[in-house]
Write a structure and sequence with these properties.
Blueprint (H helix, E strand, L loop, with lengths): L15 E10 L6 H12 L9 H27 L8 H16 L5 E9 L4 H10 L2 E8 L6 H16 L6 E4 L7 H16 L7 E7 L3 H5 L4 H16 L6 E6 L12 H7 L7 E5 L8 H17 L4 E4 L7 H14 L5
The chain binds the ligand C=CC1=C(C)c2cc3[nH]c(cc4nc(cc5[nH]c(cc1n2)c(C)c5CCC(=O)O)C(CCC(=O)O)=C4C)c(C)c3C=C and fe (ii) ion (FE2) (2 copies).
The site of one fe (ii) ion (FE2) has 3 residues, from helix 10.
Amino acid sequence: MSEHFPPNHPVLPQQKVGVLLLNLGTPDGTDYWSVRRYLKEFLSDPRVIETNKLIWWPILNFVILSFRPQKSGHAYAQIWDKEKNESPLRVITREQTQSLAERLRGEDIMVEFAMRYGNPSTRSVLEKMQAAGCQRILLVPLYPQYSATTTATANDKAFDALRTMRWQPAVRTAPAYFDDPHYIETLGNSIREGIAKLDFEPDVVITSYHGMPVDYLKKGDPYYCQCHKTTRLLRDYLGWPEEKLLVTFQSRFGPTEWLQPYTDKTLEALPGKGVKKVAILAPAFSADCIETLEEIAMGGKDSFMAAGGEKFAYIPCLNASTPGMDYIEAMVRRELGGWV
Ligand SMILES: C=CC1=C(C)c2cc3[nH]c(cc4nc(cc5[nH]c(cc1n2)c(C)c5CCC(=O)O)C(CCC(=O)O)=C4C)c(C)c3C=C
Ligand SMILES: [Fe+2]
Ligand SMILES: [Fe+2]
């Protein structure tokens, strides 16, 4: 008999592969304190706000966190899933996770989701996966276009948790998929089908991406170029000219210059140029959320109509739709190559 120490070796769970879907995060409720807690974590992230900490700390704590939680809480209340008492972003991310788990069933793969800010936290889920025997974990940031403000910080948070694990699993990160032909085809088909359901033919279709300070682009963040490439490939796929499929940037925050053209200003200007019927989608988001449902589908529609627009339609994100999940499954299987 060999000499083992300790003599009563603990029983170890069976080894398995894990897939961890990562998204941004969302508040646990629409009340002031829930939204404040979420915004504080979000806006304290130096990947998101690069302003010097000594300058930013008082602005965040004394100015932004005293008024923004009410304003955002009111916006969240308009889109809240009242049946599940949860934010749509989390409802949809969970549906995507369940669907992927279903598709990978029988291969002993554990599929979970975690958020960069709020719950379920990346650390708690990674610890659960490690304890369940996941010795190989694929991290999948659910952002089609890479940005340091989203993809990199999601991965950072996962690596932070791994840093304190004695028995650290092997980890891979999935790359951005902004130009993957299968993704472009899936998104292109969702545009075609979205339009086919309408009672009008849009004069133009807008791809509205989440914005970012221009300064981050100048410092080398590839997000802006990847957004443009997604739309260019969509035009090629659909066979549309440049003026039929526009690129705009939404969700401006703070006084600095953000990526342009701005979605809100574009929607206000189009009717004056004779464009009265638009359809709009938000390809930077894998799941519908406050930025798409409240800001675009509701707010964007109001400003377009107030400026003289006649027809407005919002085309949903891929969410947990069958084609959307077909894509995520194929991408995950590809990235798991050699592991399963
Ligand atoms: C302040 C700077 C911000 C940067 C830069 C930024 C980049 C960025 N964000 C997303 C995706 C999402 N953002 C969401 C909400 C949201 N974003 C910011 C700020 C920045 N985002 C704030 C303050 C908020 C909170 C809502 C609000 O108070 O207005 C969400 C939705 C979350 C939800 O709960 O529904 C997503 C998703 C991307 C892709 C991106 C890339 C440049
Ligand atoms: Fe954002
Ligand atoms: Fe917003």
